[in-house]
Design brief:
Layout: E1 2-8, H1 14-23, E2 29-34, H2 40-50, E3 53-56, H3 64-72, H4 77-88, H5 94-117, E4 123-128, H6 133-139, E5 149-156, H7 174-180, E6 183-186, H8 189-198, E7 207-210, E8 231-236, H9 245-252, H10 255-258, E9 262-267, H11 273-283, E10 289-293, H12 297-306, E11 311-314, H13 323-330, E12 335-338, E13 352-355, H14 362-377, H15 379-396, H16 399-415
Helix pairs in contact: 1-16, 4-5, 5-6, 9-11, 9-14, 13-15
Length: 417
């Protein structure tokens, strides 16, 4: 029997749900460890629907046993190695030491949950969705590894990969993780390149694989309307500084779009919600903007169809490979994005507009607006762009295809060893 032990930050998370639907077909049982702050009733419903068992990692539970475990590991070989690295790189300070011990604390607690699940009668596959503290925790199972642990693997995305995107500007135990995982799966070419340039690897390091994530096919496609005159834009994100919704307002308010009939569907909420609303009121007509707030994944597709969205816009300063762009492309909606993170893997001049990160001056945004209008008005060209949007999604970001390939390669790699 094959059991997948899947560690993730949240169960009620689109990427997890997209994966688990397919993964259940390849494993006899799935056990999920979540360390997010989640509603148990909602998780129970998902566990029942998708047929998996789960536990919450109670890392805040200060038991005597957990405290004793940490005390016994205050100066283990991994801690000494990491402190030596911090000292060598000039980053040995109290903040980083505390963060390093937090990783150690988490790994000790999580290790107890995993150990209970490792039955001698099952082939075990350990999988962390994030290359952070859960990856460190499962990497420890490579030491004195049991024969029935077939694979120890992790994905990586954005904050768990790009050190400068992490609030500490430091990610602990990277070298230990690298040499004790069997495989690391990267969500974009940029993420793989970044990791390789960081040179975490050593002799006997993990195998590096490019493995795109994806979204489900809801079989909802944008319909081509040759007589349409209004351009409908959409965005979908948390309203935080990094997402740069202010640049979307600036784009829509540029001279080349000023006299064009247009509409902006803004999906999401967050700390800058009121600020963006005020900015939109100042620069755009109130009839041109619709704020929906946060909505479910299924509702997003319905909104795009109801409003007949023509372009999806992402102006973020930093990204992995945005699920929001995948969702839009799956409907055949062309996309506009800045060339950050993995956006170049998903947006190009055939299915939308990819602009350089720095090119966001008023003039450059107006040049972009003019290109968008020109493409929309050339109906045959816009129709090709719609088809290219769907084709690229289906080729690279169809979650059913991607997770199927991921699971099959995982099992095949084990069988060939």
């Amino acid at each position: 029997m094959k059991e997948l032990i899947y560690v993730t930050g949240k169960i009620n998370f689109p990427f997890f749900i997209n994966e688990i639907v397919v993964m259940r077909k390849y494993f006899d049982s799935v056990y999920v460890l979540s360390y997010g702050d989640e509603d148990k009733l909602e998780c129970d419903k998902l566990a029942d629907k998708y047929k998996f068992n789960y536990d919450f990692i109670l890392e805040k539970q200060l038991s005597f046993d957990n405290f004793k475990m940490l005390c016994c590991n205050l100066l283990n070989k991994n801690i000494i190695e990491e402190m030596s690295f911090l000292k060598k790189t000039g980053r040995l300070n109290l903040k980083n030491i505390a963060y390093m011990y937090y990783y150690e604390w988490f790994s000790l607690i999580m290790g107890k949950y995993v150990t209970k699940r490792i039955s001698k009668n099952k082939e075990i596959y350990l999988y962390s969705f994030w290359l952070s503290r859960p990856a460190f925790a499962i990497a420890k199972f490579n030491e004195n590894r049991r024969g029935n642990i077939k694979q120890i693997i992790s994905r990586t995305h954005r904050y768990d990969l790009y050190e400068e995107e992490n609030s500490f500007n430091y990610l602990p135990f990277r070298r230990y993780i690298d040499r004790n995982l069997d495989r690391i799966y990267f969500s974009s070419r940029d993420s793989l390149k970044y990791y390789q340039e960081k040179n975490y690897s050593c002799e006997g390091h993990a195998e590096y694989c490019l493995s795109y994530l994806g979204t489900r096919n809801f079989n909802i496609r944008k319909q081509y309307n040759i007589n349409k005159e209004e351009i409908v834009f959409a965005s979908c994100s948390n309203m935080i500084q990094r997402k740069r919704l202010d640049l979307i307002v600036s784009l829509l308010a540029s001279p080349s779009l000023r006299d064009i009939k247009k509409k902006w569907i803004c999906i999401g909420d967050g700390e800058l919600f009121e600020e963006i609303k005020d900015m939109a009121r100042l620069y755009l007509d109130e009839t041109e903007v619709f704020f929906t707030g946060r909505v479910s994944e299924e509702e997003i597709y319905k909104i795009y169809k109801e409003h007949d969205v023509d372009f999806f816009v992402n102006m973020s300063d930093s990204e992995g490979v945005p699920v929001s762009i995948m969702e839009a492309l799956s409907m055949g909606i062309p996309c506009v994005a800045r060339n950050v993170g993995g956006n170049a893997d998903i947006v190009n001049d055939k299915n939308g507009f990819l602009i350089e990160k720095e090119k966001v001056s008023s003039k450059e945004l107006d040049d972009l607006a003019k290109k968008i209008v020109d493409k929309f008005m050339q109906k045959d060209q816009y129709f090709k762009m719609m088809n290219n949007a769907f084709d690229l999604w289906n080729e690279r970001f169809n979650t059913e295809h991607n997770v199927k390939n991921f699971c099959e390669s995982l099992i095949a790699n084990q069988e060939n060893t």
